[in-house]
Design brief:
By secondary structure, this protein is mainly alpha-helical. It has 28 helices and no strands.
Length: 815
Amino acid sequence: EKTMAKSCARLDAETFDAAAFVNEVFPTESSLGDVEDVVEKVRRRIQEVDGEIRASVRLQSSAGLRAREDLGNGQQAIQELGEKVKEIKHKSEQSERMVQEICRDIKKLDNAKKHLTHTITTLRRLAMLVSAVEQLQGMADRREYKDAASLLEAVNQLVAFFEPFSSVPRLEELKNTHKNIKTQLRSYIHHDFSTLAVQASPDNDAQFQREKSVLCDACLVVEGLEPQVKEEIVSSICNRELGSYAQIFAGSAEVSRLDKIDRRYAWLKRQLKLRESMWNVFPANWKVPQIVCATFCKITRAQLAETLDARKGEADVATLLTALQRTIEFENEMMERFAPAATSRRSEVDFVDASLSDMMRRKYSLDDQSQTSKESEYVEDAAEAVSNIRFRGAISGVFEAHLQCYVDLEESSLMDVLDGLLKEETWKSADEENKVLVSSMELFLHMKRSLKRCSALTRNQTLFSLFGSFQKILLSYAKRLEEKLPRPSAGLNAVPSSDRYDWQLRISDEEIETVCNIVNTGEYCLETTTSLGENLTKILEEPFSTSVDITPQEDAFKDVITRSLNVLMLAIATKMDSALVAMTKKNWAGLDSVGDQSEYVGALQEMLIKSGQTIGGFLSPVNFQYFCEKLVASFVPRIYATVLQCKRLGEIGAQQLQVDLHAMQAYLLELPTTGGLDKVDASFSKYVTQEMGKSEAILKIVLSPPHSLAETFSTLLPGANVMDFGRILELKGIKRQEQQELVDLLSGEKTLHETEEPPSEADRQNPTKTSEVVGKAVAAMHRSRGSFRTQAEDFSLKIGDRLRRAASESKRFFH
């Protein structure tokens, strides 16, 4: 009863499920007897629901009438509100028209006042303009620059104010008068500056002091004139001061040679010192000394370009570099003089030392030759100079296109250094801490010095070209290191194999030490080369910094490391090969008892310990781990092949060989720790255990009963081939005449001999034919197993479908 009441309450739920409800009310077959009672209770519940529905309908009808009445009242209230809004809007429009009529007269009075005030102001300014122009004219005639400067600014503003009234005749007349006054002032100022003494007078000279005072006032007037006036004055000063310089140091003059470049800069320094008191008349914001120096740099650059082009390919490298060094010193001095806060990056790098200059003179000894060139004038634009005054590279940039000879010299010098270092190389490590070759450290030291010298001179194309020379040097060094490696007949990339011997490499302990040093040197060069590329990227300027690519050199040293480690692997694998040879030569069938590990295993252990300690003591942990992995990967698969090559084993021999293989596996796993590694890598242990397990599987198959050989072979060595199975049968000692019968018996394939002719006695005596027969038998066995598995899966699917259909029918019947 309670269950029924609870279940009926669920009828009101939104997620009601009829099937679930019926299953809950009638959980068993015996509960179907209460169907009538349940139906009666459901009917009563339906009647109750119908009553509730009727009551709700009556209540809703009465509520609808009240809602219609309320809606009508609301609509009537809205209509009344709309009428009131229209009335208020009409009254507001009337009020607005009344306000506009009242304010119309006030607005007219305000406009009249504004126009009257503007007219009075304009007339006053007109009177001021007339008076100011008359006063300015008198000051200009008397050359009273100081008073004229302040008045000129006011007149300029008044003229700008009356610009919209230019059509008025009187204003047009005043404007023309103002223009004529400025032209007159411009002419007077040019004349006064042109009479400026060529040589500075003493500061206590009264005449000179008066001239300076006049010119200082004239500069104030220039500020009120057009901008081009100031540019013309500065340009005239530059042309007058540097015109003699351009003639003295012309291309055909003796002093224009590169070895006399110091005289150019000394001349300018004298002029700056001599004209310092004279150039004080100019305001500081005119930057007259800076512009003169910038103009000097442009003239000098053009003259040096002519000189360098005329002697292209004939210039002395040492002279060229000395001139460049002196030029950079001059540029830095100008930067410090006119921009003390700006620091030069080149000041942090030493310049070319005397020893390098001497070396260049010896290598490039050329006689001085006189060069002639056309004499030209240099007229500079002062406005362009003042807009962008930059002394760094202003003159030294002209040398950039002529420094390839310097790069060639550096490259030749580094090549000579490399040859000398390799001739003196002992191929021993430098010390216990740095186990690299001395030649690598010395080579990078010379490259660092070369980089320092070049970066002190330029950080553009020449430095980038020097980087190309560095690339050639590094590739050459990597090649020379690789040439020093011992080579087997099969080459440096040879792989050990059981069927040939051209990979074997027999070298002494000293040669092993040399190869280890080459590995360490390659690693050191790789790290240093990467650092070199990063530093050059920071030092070089755009766009050369983005073109630095050190990848080929890094790959070259990576190849040196890889091939050196492969040489070490071949050398140790050659020594380990003697253990495999001893394994194949031992008479396993003649053993009568199982003992400790064999002698060749002990020899292998000693050799692994010695090699691990020697090589591990030289190599880094990463390289030694790689060496161990490479050695094991080449040696363990050959153990599998060697076991198959052994003679008949017998049960005792197979057990003894199991002991030897287990010992060999333990020694191989201990190889990384003998070289100083803290622990053995998990992947390394997994590989050794997995690969050695294949060799041990052969012995397990040999020790299995004859009737289970094929099954054990398929289980333990699923990837083995037919030839391996044939060799295992021979290791087991099964006669060739019995091998086919054993395979037929265990394969379960009776149709094999019905479809194929039985082998003849000659085929049974032929090992190749026997192996083919065994392979066909094994394949037939696998096919039969596959067919049976397919049939079993089909049967399982059919049974599953039938069970699902039966369950569905039973559920429908029950519901």
